[in-house]
Amino acid sequence: DVKVTQSSRYLVKRTGEKVFLECVQDMDHENMFWYRQDPGLGLRLIYFSYDVKMKEKGDIPEGYSVSREKKERFSLILESASTNQTSMYLCASSFRKANYGYTFGSGTRLTVV
Amino acid sequence: DAKTTQPPSMDCAEGRAANLPCNHSTISGNEYVYWYRQIHSQGPQYIIHGLKNNETNEMASLIITEDRKSSTLILPHATLRDTAVYYCIDGSGNTGKLIFGQGTTLQVKP
């Protein structure tokens, strides 16, 4: 069964900490995406990547960075976590031409205290 | 911002067909219509997509109007497990980037 795996289901971090959210896919997908989901705001695109070492800003990149050193792994980095980054984070992947749709991970619920 | 418009909520009786509408008035010629759903506390799940023609798979049917400005997702025999938020998205198959809107919360009732 094809999978997108996010490293943690729940995470609690302190304000100012550097936080790494990891995502791994086993489908040989070129594209990978990071979204956050908040009540009333829906899913918002943070960053995406079309290929190894490539990244593009989404709609809300401020306060985040990403890393894609290998095709199967896409990391989201919160350089200095803040309470307004408390959210559900969702990773997704797809083939370059997304005609076959995205596959999403189960999400990481991050709480910054 | 999302480019599609969906009703915020709908109800459907168990066993009946659920018809979820979507308007995508700004869709361009090379953009597909995608439908996803999200069950509480899970990641969104791909359902179906189409370009011009109607499509059917094991989960649902997709009806796209001739002018492509609107579509309808049909769940032919809704079950309680179909209760979820359903997202309609139009996006470029070339870029792979999809922008999600607020979706429709479908409540299937016994």
% residues in beta strands of chain A? over 45%
For the largest beta sheet of chain B, what order do the strands appear in spatially? 1-9-8-3-4
What is the alpha-carbon Rg of chain B in Å? 13 Å
What's the count of strands of chain B? 9
Give the SSE string of chain A. EEEEEEEEEEE
- Provide a count of the helices of chain A: 0
Task: Kindly estimate the percentage of residues of chain B that lie in beta strands according to DSSP.
Answer: over 45%
Q: How do you describe this structure in short?
A:
The complex is a heterodimer of chains A (113) and B (110). By secondary structure, chain A is mostly beta strands.
How would you describe the overall organization of this protein?
The complex is a heterodimer of chains A (113) and B (110). Chain A has 113 residues and is an all-beta fold. In chain A, 0% of the residues lie in helices and 53% in strands. Chain A has no helices and 11 strands. In chain A, strands 2, 4, 5, 6, 9, 10 and 11 form a 7-stranded mixed beta sheet that branches. A 4-stranded antiparallel beta sheet of chain A has the order 1-3-8-7, with no helix packed on it. In chain A, strand 5 and strand 6 form a beta hairpin. Chain A is globular. The model of chain A has no long low-confidence stretch (mean pLDDT 92). With 110 residues, chain B is an all-beta fold. Chain B contains no helices and 9 strands. Chain B has strands spanning 9-13, 18-23, 31-38, 45-50, 55-56, 61-64, 70-75, 84-92, 104-109. Chain B has a 5-stranded mixed beta sheet, with no helix packed on it. In chain B, a hairpin with a 4-residue loop joins strand 5 (55-56) and strand 6. Classes of the chains: A mainly beta (113), B mainly beta (110). Chains A and B meet through strand 4, strand 5, strand 9 and strand 10 of A and strand 3, strand 4 and strand 8 of B.
